[in-house]
Each structure stands twice: as C-alpha cells, then as structure tokens.
C-alpha cells in the first residue's frame, strides 16, 4: 500500500477536506478557502459522513481545471486511487471537470464555486487574500448553483446580465449593491470601489469625499456628499451619477438621489448597520431603531410612524406623509416658471418640472428636489431640468436631496405631495401659456393606488381595450362622465376617481364592472376585450400574492411594473400566481427562447410556496401581448415597440 502523510489525516472524522496537486505532491487547502479553485490546477475533495451505525461513508472526487496540465491530471487520478486504497476501497469516486461538476460536489459548497486564474505552475498559492495586495474581478453566473469565474480587471469585463465582484484583497465590493468613492484629488475626477458590507458601515463615509451607493438592481443610485469635499467634487456629483449609470448599462429611468452629509434620508440610512445621527443619545434619549437591509416581511404603511421605522420608509419609499411645504416650477427653455398652486399635482407629458419639497426629520429640516421629466418633453428641457435642479441645490447650500424622475416611474413620496388628491398625468401636451391644445372630447383616465395609499391618474387612449378589472377609470365625454369601477379596484382608487372629477370639473355616474350602459361602450368606440381575469378582479389575491416580474437570468423581482421593464433582448417571466407568463423579446438569443418554457417549469417546481405544478404557463411573444398579460402593466402602449430599438437606445444615452 502506497503511503502519504496526508492520507493519515484523510477521513478520520466527518466533514470536508480539500487538497491541491502541487509539483506531484498532495497539499492541503486551508478550510477558509474551500470552494476556490485555480483553473490551472487539479484537486482532490473528500467528504466523510458518519452514519447512524457509526461507520464512515466516503465520497472522493478529483477535480480538473480547464487549464491543468496532463501531468497534474494524471497525478490527481493516481492520488485518488491511492487514497481510495488507503481508506479500504470504501469511497465512491468521482471525476469532476470545471463547469460540469456533479450535483454531489456542488452540494458541498453552498456559497457556490469560485474559479480563479492561474495555478501552482504560475506561482499561485492558496493564501488568505486579505493578507496580500491583489485585485481581481469575478463574474458570477448561475441560478441555483453559483459559479464565480475570474475575468480581466477592466470595465470591458462588465455587462448588465451578470453579477460581478471586485476583490481588492482587504475590501470586497459587489456590483449589485455597492458604494463607490468619487474623488478628484489627482486633478481629474475618478471613481474607485469602496468595501461593500451590505449593510455598510457608516465609518466608511469620509467627510472629505463623495460616495455613490449603487442599488441599480432596484432602479436607485444614491450620492452622498461629504461636508469637506471640494467644490468640484460636489458639483460633479450628478454628472458622475449619469456616467456611472451609462457605464453600468442601467436604464435611463434609474432614480438618482444626491444628499449632503448630515442630510441623509431614511431611505439611504437603511443600507447601513447601526447608523447614528450626530448628537443622538441612547437610553432615555432619542430612540434608535436598527433595521436589516434584507428584511423581507411586508410592513403596513402608517404615516404616523414613518419617522420611527426606516424599514417602512424604505419599503414604501416615504420620508414623511407628504404634508410639508412645496414649490413647483415648469421648465420653459432654459428657465423655470413657477406653477400656480391651484394646479399642483397636474403634470403634462410634454413638459418637465422641478418640485422643491421641505420636510422635517429627526428635529432637522430637509429638502428634496424632484426633477420630473415628461415622456414627450424635449431633450433641451430635460437637460435644463437637471441644470436648474443643480442650481437650486446650490442656492439652498448644497443640502437638498435630488431625485430624477422619469414619467411613469414616480416614487410613492412624490405621489403623496398633493393633499390626498391623485397625481394627474395628462397624455402629452403642455401647460405653458399659448402652448395648450384643446383637450379631446372624450378622455379616459386610469386610476391606480400604491401600498402607501397614494393614487396616480394617467390619461390613456379612450378605447375599451384599455380597461382593467383591477383599477378604477374616469371616462369624460361631451355629454356625460362615468366612473367605472373594476371588480378588483380598491376604495382608495374609487376615492381617487371622485377627486379627479373635482379637478376636471365634471360630475359623473358610477358604473360597476358588468353594469355598463350602451352610452358607455359607444363613447369608447364599442365594446371590446379588455384586461380581466379572476386574479385582477380579486383584491385579496393581489395582497396575498403580488405579481412578480423576473428575467430568466434570475434577476430581482420587480413589484412596480411598467412596459419599459420588459427587456427586448431577454426572456421574462411574469408570475401572477394563477398562471405564469413567459414573454419572449424579439432580440432574445435562440438558446434563451428554447430554454424559456423549461425555466418557467423549474421556477414553479422550486417555488418555496409549494405551487401547483399544473399551474398554466402562457408563452407569448413581443408585440402580440393579450389583455390578460398587459393588464398587469400601468398605461400599456401598443405602439411602444414600433420605433427602432437602436434609435430609442441612442436617444436614451444622449440624456
């Protein structure tokens, strides 16, 4: 029997052991580095299980990296046979190849596998990375099994479809939620990674610099300006955010918030562990509430307790109940013109606006500057809104939080600013003097509320196919007006339509779904199929299982869905509980299209809620969406994809 010193340590007690082949020798890998494999090497992995009888069971694997030499591969096979012999021939042996590992092996590494460049022949040793100066980028792939592969340290290695980790040795940063430092100490503005702890440590925020907190996966970018940062850094904050959004490939509607030191909002603070405000006391002083960034349980909205619950504030997007003071300006050319307070809350798709909101939190006054950009607003006015918003920030001493808002992506807090009345968005047009066009004789408004009880009324085309059983609608005609109540509409949405009647100066009669009159259908061009289902008609089901939109690459669920969330180069899964839709974009890869249905089946089978495996799966293609699908999206536009995708993308990048 062949002997090796490592054999004496093998399989003596239950657990996992890993060795690497180094110059035809067997060398143990430190336990804290289990799961990391150099692609130029070969490894032995032994898993020992103690059975109830007291006997030991062995699973013995030899793993081959893509670039390991023939000699190393042969040595691994020989050591495997010798160790098997030493253990009395009891082990089950496995030959494993990088990227094609058995389920048994993958089960050992719950955190996934990490493939690192190089190997022992290149001088790479298994060491603790925090003890050396090194930099590397890991590309993370996988649905249920995560594999992290080292790629070149370059922006060219990043793409929007995958997750990446930048390993700086003593600091680790993730591109899902991360902080970045913005500095021009060298004379040129530059961005560098900062350790991401998720939740972060407040001590990482240095007063002499500006920082970007990247929560792009949820459509949000935060910029924190240190009070001692130089003027150039503070002025370049929004520009840095725009460049960062483009660099990361995030959509143009990504929300940007810029805030000064000591002016942090509850939304920002909830990403940090043990956040402490200046002069905050403990014990009988100011109460401190610690929350976890990963809290998943639903927190009911209660405006009276917002200041005591950052989790509620973050989950519902509310810094307060919206009762503070506000000013609103409309962008005209390169200037801003104050909007008459009597029309606050009414927005035109052809305009851009600046909203200044003043609130109090923790005994201090805060400011929020919302820059609302209409979908039909000119590029010049969109650019002017950003410039004028920055100027207003300077006038207020650099203290306000700045929020860029694209039409259709309004935050809950913005919707709450209008005294309990709905936020009204008119279809196109403008409110400027001399620019108004006469409204259409027949108009249809869709009213929908959010979890915080705020409503938004969006003008849509006046056709019956735009009705939705889950919402309330106001139909205005020259002769009469109707409030149409879908069976799934809430009382809040009903109240919103009544308030909308007051805003528009019309009186209406209420029609429940199923009780429509001939005049109602005639005003909408005739009766037609619209968005309805047992799910849309039920209030309780929507609360129990809110709809979730997923990309087949296993991206984060999206609870506020708009048509723009559907990526034309991807395959998406929309889960409405009673059925699962598979939406196929025209530019999706053939492999993604082929695997789409199988992905939906796996999604249902692996749902922790023990879903019925017979749940219907509906496969639909871009441009041919039925009302049962479009009903889950606010203000669906059937002409949205008729424009050239490349031209639309180029227009977005110019913003």
From TrEMBL:
<feature type="domain" description="Gelsolin-like">
    <location>
        <begin position="561"/>
        <end position="629"/>
    </location>
</feature>
<dbReference type="GO" id="GO:0051014">
    <property type="term" value="P:actin filament severing"/>
</dbReference>
<dbReference type="GO" id="GO:0051016">
    <property type="term" value="P:barbed-end actin filament capping"/>
</dbReference>
<comment type="similarity">
    <text>Belongs to the villin/gelsolin family.</text>
</comment>
<dbReference type="GO" id="GO:0008154">
    <property type="term" value="P:actin polymerization or depolymerization"/>
</dbReference>
<dbReference type="GO" id="GO:0051015">
    <property type="term" value="F:actin filament binding"/>
</dbReference>
<feature type="domain" description="Gelsolin-like">
    <location>
        <begin position="457"/>
        <end position="503"/>
    </location>
</feature>
<dbReference type="Pfam" id="PF00626">
    <property type="entry name" value="Gelsolin"/>
</dbReference>
<dbReference type="GO" id="GO:0005737">
    <property type="term" value="C:cytoplasm"/>
</dbReference>
<feature type="domain" description="Gelsolin-like">
    <location>
        <begin position="24"/>
        <end position="103"/>
    </location>
</feature>
<dbReference type="GO" id="GO:0015629">
    <property type="term" value="C:actin cytoskeleton"/>
</dbReference>
<keyword id="KW-0677">Repeat</keyword>
<keyword id="KW-0106">Calcium</keyword>
<dbReference type="GO" id="GO:0060271">
    <property type="term" value="P:cilium assembly"/>
</dbReference>
<dbReference type="GO" id="GO:0005615">
    <property type="term" value="C:extracellular space"/>
</dbReference>
<keyword id="KW-0206">Cytoskeleton</keyword>
<feature type="domain" description="Gelsolin-like">
    <location>
        <begin position="336"/>
        <end position="415"/>
    </location>
</feature>
<keyword id="KW-0963">Cytoplasm</keyword>
<comment type="function">
    <text>Calcium-regulated, actin-modulating protein that binds to the plus (or barbed) ends of actin monomers or filaments, preventing monomer exchange (end-blocking or capping). It can promote the assembly of monomers into filaments (nucleation) as well as sever filaments already formed. Plays a role in ciliogenesis.</text>
</comment>
<dbReference type="GO" id="GO:0005546">
    <property type="term" value="F:phosphatidylinositol-4,5-bisphosphate binding"/>
</dbReference>
<keyword id="KW-0009">Actin-binding</keyword>
<dbReference type="GO" id="GO:0007417">
    <property type="term" value="P:central nervous system development"/>
</dbReference>
<feature type="domain" description="Gelsolin-like">
    <location>
        <begin position="145"/>
        <end position="173"/>
    </location>
</feature>
<keyword id="KW-0117">Actin capping</keyword>
<feature type="domain" description="Gelsolin-like">
    <location>
        <begin position="194"/>
        <end position="268"/>
    </location>
</feature>
<dbReference type="GO" id="GO:0046872">
    <property type="term" value="F:metal ion binding"/>
</dbReference>
<keyword id="KW-0479">Metal-binding</keyword>
<dbReference type="InterPro" id="IPR007123">
    <property type="entry name" value="Gelsolin-like_dom"/>
</dbReference>
<dbReference type="InterPro" id="IPR029006">
    <property type="entry name" value="ADF-H/Gelsolin-like_dom_sf"/>
</dbReference>
<keyword id="KW-0970">Cilium biogenesis/degradation</keyword>
<protein>
    <recommendedName>
        <fullName>Gelsolin</fullName>
    </recommendedName>
</protein>
<dbReference type="InterPro" id="IPR007122">
    <property type="entry name" value="Villin/Gelsolin"/>
</dbReference>
């Amino acid at each position: 029997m062949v002997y090796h010193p490592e054999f004496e340590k093998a399989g003596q007690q239950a657990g996992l052991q890993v060795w690497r082949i180094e110059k035809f020798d067997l060398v143990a890998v430190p336990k804290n580095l289990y799961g990391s494999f150099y692609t130029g090497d070969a490894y032995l992995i032994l898993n020992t299980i103690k059975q109830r009888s007291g006997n030991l069971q062995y699973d013995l694997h030899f793993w081959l990296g893509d670039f390991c030499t023939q000699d190393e591969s042969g040595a691994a096979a020989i050591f495997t046979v010798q160790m098997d012999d030493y253990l009395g021939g009891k082990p089950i042996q496995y030959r494993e190849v990088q990227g094609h590992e058995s389920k048994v092996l993958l089960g050992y590494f719950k955190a996934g596998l990490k493939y690192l460049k190089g190997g022992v022949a290149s001088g790479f040793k298994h060491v603790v990375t925090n003890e050396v100066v090194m930099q590397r980028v890991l590309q993370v792939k996988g649905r249920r099994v995560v594999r992290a592969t080292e790629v070149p340290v370059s922006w060219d290695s990043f793409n929007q479809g995958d997750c990446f980790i930048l390993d700086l040795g003593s600091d680790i940063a993730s591109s899902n939620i991360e902080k970045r430092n913005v500095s021009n100490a060298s004379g040129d503005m530059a961005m560098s990674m900062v350790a991401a702890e998720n939740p972060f440590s407040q001590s990482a925020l240095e007063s002499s610099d500006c920082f970007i907190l990247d929560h792009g996966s949820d459509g949000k970018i935060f910029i924190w300006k240190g009070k001692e940062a130089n003027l150039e850094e503070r002025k370049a904050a929004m520009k840095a955010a725009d460049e960062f959004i483009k660099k990361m490939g995030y959509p143009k509607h990504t929300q940007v918030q810029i805030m000064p030191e000591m002016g942090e909002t509850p939304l920002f603070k909830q990403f940090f562990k043990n956040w402490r405000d200046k002069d905050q006391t403990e014990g009988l002083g100011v109460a401190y509430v610690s929350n976890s960034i990963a809290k998943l349980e639903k927190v009911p909205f209660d405006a009276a307790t917002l200041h005591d619950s950052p989790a509620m504030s973050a989950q519902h997007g509310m810094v307060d109940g919206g009762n503070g003071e506000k000013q609103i300006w409309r962008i005209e050319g390169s200037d801003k013109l104050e909007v008459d307070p009597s029309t606050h809350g009414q927005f035109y798709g052809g305009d851009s606006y600046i909203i200044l909101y003043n609130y109090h939190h923790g005994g201090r006054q805060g400011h929020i500057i919302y820059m609302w950009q209409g979908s039909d607003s000119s590029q010049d006015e969109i650019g002017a809104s950003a410039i004028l918003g920055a100027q207003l920030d300077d006038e207020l001493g650099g203290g306000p939080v700045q929020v860029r808002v694209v039409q259709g992506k309004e935050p809950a807090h913005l919707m709450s600013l209008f005294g309990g009345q709905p936020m009204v968005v008119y279809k196109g047009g403008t409110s400027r003097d001399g620019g108004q066009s006469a409204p259409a004789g027949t108009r249809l408004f869709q009213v929908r509320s959010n979890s915080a009880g705020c409503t938004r009324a969006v003008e849509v085309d006046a056709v019956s196919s735009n009705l939705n059983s889950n919402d309330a609608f106001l139909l205005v005609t020259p002769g009469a007006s109707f409030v149409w109540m879908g069976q799934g509409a809430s009382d809040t949405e009903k109240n919103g339509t009544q308030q909308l009647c007051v805003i528009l100066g019309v009186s209406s009669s209420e029609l429940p779904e199923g009780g429509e009159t001939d005049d109602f259908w005639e005003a909408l061009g005739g009766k037609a199929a619209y968005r309805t289902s047992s799910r849309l008609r039920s209030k309780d089901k929507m609360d129990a299982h809110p709809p979730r939109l997923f990309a087949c690459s296993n991206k984060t669920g999206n609870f506020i869905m708009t048509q723009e969330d559907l990526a034309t180069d991807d395959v998406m899964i929309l889960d409405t509980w009673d059925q699962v839709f598979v939406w196929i974009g025209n530019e999706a890869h053939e492999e993604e299209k082929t695997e789409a249905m199988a992905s939906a089946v796996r999604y249902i089978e692996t749902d922790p809620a023990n879903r019925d495996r017979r749940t219907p799966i509906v496969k639909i293609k871009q441009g041919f969406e039925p009302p049962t699908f479009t009903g889950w999206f606010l203000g669906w536009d059937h002409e949205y994809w008729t424009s050239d995708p490349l031209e639309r993308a180029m227009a977005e990048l110019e913003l």
